# Entry
Amino acid sequence: MPTEARAARTTAPLVLVGLMALSLFINYVDRGNLATGATQIRADLDLSATAYGALAAGFYFAYAFCQLPSGALSDRIGGKRVLFIGALLWSVSTLLTGFVEGFMGLFVLRMMLGMGESVAFTTTSKIIASNVPRAQMGLANGVIGFGYLVGPAAGTLLGGLLMAQWGWRATFVLFGAVSLLWLVPWSRVQIIDAKPVENDGQKPVTMRQILGRRALWGAALGHFAGNWNWYFILGYLPMYLEMQRGFSKEHMATVVSSAYLVNALAALLAGWAFDKAILRGWSASFTLKVPLAAAHIAGLGCMLAMPVLPIGACIALLFVYEIFLGFSSPAYFMIPQIMGGPAAAARWVGVQNMMGNMPGIIGVLFAGVLIDASGGAYGTAFLLAGLVNILGLIGWIGILPKVEPVDWEAA
# Structure
């Protein structure tokens, strides 16, 4: 069928991006419930910080290593179908978490959650690259970024309040059941789901070609460093504020959710600003690399200061970091969408996101070990998170070349 005929029947990009942003919102609400309920869950199931770290690592192990097959599967059977299957899996696993009775049951369900959520960025990147005009790609990624960054804000606030009132089990069941409702509108969308053989008559892009790009590995290293900080904050900040700084669960939920909301709003603004800057003639490299570097500098300062400064200064620095992090967020996936194009974006993001999520395995687990080894103190874990930002600067600035579409025929 001609591309024009197919495009005439597709869902409007605004609706499509909105639904995908909603799916990422749900994704991050569901994954963040463990951190929000950490103190209750640890007390109820008698878990050490190391055991809690193992639960977080179990999720990220499945999440990271399912990135490659989810990218390949998106190219083979389409991003729409793969995202549907993944959303179904992560919703059911969230619901069932409310019924677990011990560490092993919770660990299995966190792995199941990771498998389901692994499809999110590979499928959305492929769908954006295939269905959203280049001039609107920044805004599309900004809206997506708003979705997955406001998820922790809403999840922490609402989850914290619900858990304080009804406990963590009822909250997981409720969130899982609500998550299933997203499947209804998604099943009705119509999209262009280009496969490698449909790349305008050109030869399919091979995995070997993708793996041979220096840009992929620079982006992967930068993604690794950014996620080390982000996942450490997601996994440990609520518990740190409650156990080390004396916050109540309601106070913690209010502060942390506010910081996440600022992050999400910055991402939405960044997506719009990136499109405007590139339209006015700014290079994609300058437009995307500068915010990424600034986020790592802010992360370095915030992580080093968090365990030693008065709590007021710590919260202020946290908000500064969240602003810079949010403003850099759309760039993470604009880079592979621009450089990889529809034929390679899903698999490129699969590799980049797999490497970028290794901190969820080693970083989150190691943070728990460091906290236990330090007698419950968080200083060394924050120090390590801060220093990792240096790797991010090397990846985005030192290794990543000019951001422009790859000529796969010549590659």
User: Anything to note?
Assistant: The chain has one domain: 16-187+205-399. Residues 1-8 have pLDDT under 50 and may be disordered. The two ends are 29 Å apart (CA to CA).
